[in-house]
Structure formats: C-alpha cells, structure tokens
Amino acid sequence: MRQGTKLDSKQQYNCKRGSRRKENFMIVDDILSKARNEKRTVLTEIEAKQIFKEAGINCTDTRLAKTKDDAVSLSEEIGYPVVLKISSVDITHKSDAGGVKVNLQDRASVEKAFDEIMASAREKFPEADIEGISVQSMAKPGIEIIMGMTKDAQFGPVLMFGLGGVFVEVLKDVAFRIVPLEKRDAAEMIRDIKGFKILEGYRGQDPADIPFLEDMLLKLSELVDKTEGIAEIDMNPVFAYKQGAVVVDARIILEAS
User: Fold this and answer.
1) Which residues on adjacent β-strands are paired with residue 253?
2) With contact defined as beta carbons under 8 Å apart, do 121 and 128 qualify?
C-alpha cells in the first residue's frame, strides 16, 4: 500500500476482523500450551468450549465451580435451569461417574446435585484429579447433530457431520470432508446424510437453520486448519433450531507430544 493511502470502510473492517481472529487464536494457543505443560492430551469441557467460542462457534455458557457456593452463585448468574457436570480430565464419560445432573431449577437442587456428583465421582474414580464442577445453561431441546474431526493417516484432518442419537449410533448416518472446507463443501456435506429430510422439517417439525450449520462447519474447519496438534474433536450433541444452533457437550484430544 502506498504511504498515505487511506483504507476504505470495508478494508478497515477486514483489518479489524483479521486482528480479532489473530487474537482469538492466540487465546487458543494459550489453552493448548497450558495443557501440554501439564502433560495432558485431554482438554476439559470448559477448555474445549472456550476454544470453540474463540473460533466463533456457539456453545452453552459453561463455567467452573470449585465449591458448592460457587455453583449456586454461577447458577444464579447464568439463570435457571442449569446443568451440573463433573470437571476432570481423568473422567471422560461423565455419566458413568454419576457426574451429570440436568434441569436444576433452584438453589436447593443445585446444592444437592453438587454434593451427589462429588460423592459419586470420588467413589467411582478415587484416583481422578477433580478440578470442580462445570455449571452450564440448560439448552432447549432441538434436532440432535454431531460434528467432529479425526486425523486420517493418508488425508490428514477430516471433518464429520451427522444427525445425533440413534442415527449416528446405529445407522452411522454421517458425512466426511477433508480440511480445509469451502462453502460448497459444507453445503454438500450436510445434504449428503440420509437424514437430511429431518433437517428440512419432516412432518411439520421445525426445520434446522441449515445456513447456520454450514457456517459452524466452516468455522470448525478454520479452527482445525489454523491450529496444530489437535488429534480429535467431538461436538455431541449440537442442538439445531429453526434459528441458530448450540454445542451442548464437547471434547478435544491433543496429539501426544
């Protein structure tokens, strides 16, 4: 650019957006560096959702409570109903530890759930390092979606998209694309699954916000493409609505150093 040349409004916007993206990915790098310094390959759900948030991917508001009073305070800040989950990198399947309580409506139910989760987790996983309990907003039900990433030995990072629940567990109704995705790839990926009619609004049900889901896939692709060392991503479930979508549960696994 010649000296003294002024940027027009679009150029100024793109420069600011580029600066914000660079700052966001610096935050992602800090989270990953912290995990590696602690010799961890598994991120907590809170860390995973923070990374997705920095990438522009919508997630349920999720915060860490170290004490029962913290859990109550955060629940009141977030707003009832809330969900409580055990937060420990040593407990991958939280439900197996009795580590999930949903639809908590008031202070008393949060206090009771906190005590029950802690007691159950310590009984079933006595060696686990428990950092606390995550408090998160209770998402309204929607069409269950699964998104994720795995590393293929030949092709490298590959994104996955499908309907959640029985569709992924039994029917394996998923589509794959190699990173990085173009807009056309995201659109085709969603339409490739056999259950696409459900996303369109089957038998009077509300349709999913397909352009929003396409954008989520593109943001996930950008995150993977710009971030080294991620081995696996699991966003399951994602609730898709008539307007928007939200990641309810998430997991990120790093490559072994």
Assistant:
1) 42, 232
2) yes
Per-residue pLDDT, 1: 38
Superfamily in which the 63-137 domain is placed by CATH? ATP-grasp fold, A domain (3.30.1490.20)
**Residue where the block lists tokens 């914000």:** 20
Instruction: Give the pLDDT confidence score for residue 3 in this predicted structure.
Output: 44
Task: State which fold the 37-57+140-254 domain adopts.
Answer: D-amino Acid Aminotransferase; Chain A, domain 1 (3.30.470)
Residue ranges of domains in the chain: 37-57+140-254, 63-137
Q: Which amino acid is at 80?
A: Y
Nearest to 101 by CA among 92, 93, 110: 110
Cβ atoms < 10 Å from Cβ of 247: 24
Q: Is 137 helix (H, G, I), strand (E, B) or coil?
A: strand
pTM: 0.86
